[in-house]
Amino acid sequence: MPTYVFERNDDGATVEKFFPMGDAPRICDEIVIDGHMCTRVASSLMVDAGVKRKVHQYPFNSESLPRHVDLGCERDDKGRQIVPNQRAEKSILDAASGYSRSIGEGDWARD
């Protein structure tokens, strides 16, 4: 079963929980975990045993992010997001999921 990332609403701590793929809450859905109301957030790292974390070199043109949408990075002539580095990739994923994070502070805020 995959692990999904949640943020506790009261203190902002990150919580991971296992769900079958068909039962997993959608991003931004709120559920109660161990007595705390938590919001599912997008995970920027998808790591599994035996699978390489990085399958691309920077910069790269994203095939999976929305096209022709301003996510804070440059776009190519087809509207694909151009991801210059890992730090920018995390910020772009946050913007695409409707959350923002102050880089270095670790504070999350819903846009």
Describe the structure.
This protein is an alpha+beta fold. The chain contains 1 helix and 8 strands; from the N terminus they run E-E-E-E-E-E-H-E-E. The longest helix is centred in the last third of the chain and has 12 residues, at 86-97. The two termini are 30 Å apart. Mean pLDDT is 76; it is low at 46-52 and 103-111.
SSE order and pairing:
Blueprint: E1 3-8, E2 14-18, E3 30-33, E4 36-40, E5 60-61, E6 82-83, H1 86-97, E7 99-101, E8 108-110
Antiparallel strand pairs: 1-2, 1-4, 3-4, 5-6, 7-8
Number of E-state strands: 8
- The helicity comes to 10-25%
Rg is 15 Å
> Which residues sit in consecutive blocks of at least 5 with pLDDT less than 50?
46-52, 103-111
Residue fraction in strands: 25-35%
H/E element sequence: EEEEEEHEE
Give a brief outline of the structure.
The protein is an alpha+beta fold. It is built from 1 helix and 8 strands; from the N terminus they run ββββββαββ. The strands form 3 sheets. Strands 2-1-4-3 form a 4-stranded antiparallel sheet, with no helix packed on it. A two-stranded antiparallel sheet has the order 5-6.
